[in-house]
Amino acid sequence: MRLVEATDQDNEKLLHYFSQSQFPGSITLRMRRMFNFFNQYRTQSDDFVTYMLLNDKDEIEAMASIVFREAWIEGQKEIVGYATDLRVSSSRRAVLTWSQHFLPVIEMARQKRNCRYIFTAVAASQRQAYNAFIRPRSIRRRMPRYYLFRRFQLMSLHGLWPFHEMPLTSVTVRKAEESDFNKLSDFIVEQSKSRPLHYFEDKNAFIATLERWRDLYTENFLIAEDKQGSVVGCVAPWSPQQIQKVYAVRYGDTAQNLKDILTFGSWFGVSHTLPRTEGELKVRHLTHLYARNPDVMYALMYNAYKQSAKDETLVYPHFEGDLMTLAPKGFISASQNFGLYCILSPTDPLPDFLKPKFMAPPIEFEPAFL
Tell me, what's the pLDDT at 141? Predict the structure, then answer.
């Protein structure tokens, strides 16, 4: 087997391999990247690399991508990487060979960009990934070390229970207009800068991100204002359908029960439905979700849900210890557990930001590019 760096000429091969793999969980998912495999990365940065492990027949046995961009960690400007789209075939040879190649690949990519930290998210249901990369191993082996940075849950909102509370009348939620851009961007930068890991240190950084984000414009944002007209919250519901589609391959027992409850509730306008087996799961991510207090957060989620289609599921991240983003009691919700890890080489010292902290504030993270 050999490891090669993918190019645009490998697009069709990557699209096919990626669409064949499945993501485990209570709902087994299959993702299909649309048109160009690399478009999801270009939405975040122009600096990315994809590696493929090829067998003797030039067939892909494993793949992974790393996206690099500027970020601020504990107030320090850094180039950080995010490892994503890790797919490994089930054969033992593929797992062992990929593990041997992974550290040299990471080291080479980091040194080229002077990048000290690479992060990746792993679902609790991805047992193969945990066994191959994260579980404790001999310190004498030259393997990447995965250090838990934060635990988080991917929350999904499916409906509103009868007799749910209404949002406060003192908070007005409306669609943003072009004239709102300055105060919207000022609010986002202010909220973002308070987080230990963030990407928007100033307005220019936010503008640059928005310009490359496909199908996301100022008018897609919902703004929450107080009685004085000041911005107290915002959210940008965004569908990745032009970049990637998700299909529900199989439902576990718990997920099937939820699906049946949602189908029944949809007859009374209480909930949104989940697709049939092999049907498309239409996800709308609550991106750029910021609020000054839980009442504002509830008002934003309530309005985003009311404006979503009857077959859409709203998704957003909830980091451990962040009381603001707990699923509101009025919603029918579900969750999936994840860990956000920092990948270091065996010789790297442990940075301070990875040391456990009680009730640490949430970091900047968009599951839309998970």
Answer: 60
Three-state DSSP state, 253:
helix
Q: How large is the C-alpha radius of gyration of the chain?
A: 21
- What's residue 101's pLDDT? 77
Half-sphere exposure of 261 (CA within 13 A, CB side): 13
What are the residue ranges in the chain where pLDDT is below 70?
Answer: 127-143
CB atoms within 10 A of CB 242: 12
Pairing assessment for the beta strands 117-123 and 76-88 based on DSSP bridges: parallel
Using alpha carbons, list the distances in angstroms from residue 118 to 67, 110, 111: 9, 8, 12
- Alpha-carbon distance of 228 to 54, in angstroms, equals 60
Beta bridge partners, 148, equal 341
Are 295 and 123 within 8 A, CB to CB?
A: no
Beta strand spans in the chain (E): 2-5, 27-33, 47-54, 60-73, 76-88, 117-123, 145-160, 172-175, 197-198, 222-225, 231-238, 244-251, 282-291, 312-319, 331-344
Tokens at 133, concatenated: 């990369």
- Count of beta carbons in the 10 Å neighbourhood of residue 245: 18
Q: What is the pLDDT of residues 114-158, one digit of tens each?
A: 999 999 998 887 766 655 555 555 555 666 788 999 999 999 999
Q: How far apart are the first and last CA of the chain?
A: 27
Cα-based torsion angle of the residue sequence 99, 101, 106, 107 in order, rounded to the nearest 10 degrees: 120
Phi and psi angles of residue 171, each rounded to the nearest 5 degrees, phi first: -110, 120
Digit-coded pLDDT (tens) for 213-261: 989 999 999 999 999 999 999 999 999 999 999 999 999 999 999 999 9
Distance CA 312, CA 272 (A): 7
Residue of 50, 51, 41 whose CA lies nearest to 98? 51
**86 close to 304: Cβ distance less than 8 angstroms:** no
Cα–Cα distance for residue pair 251/28, rounded to 1 Å: 6
What is the bridge-based pairing of β-strands 76-88 and 312-319?
Answer: unpaired
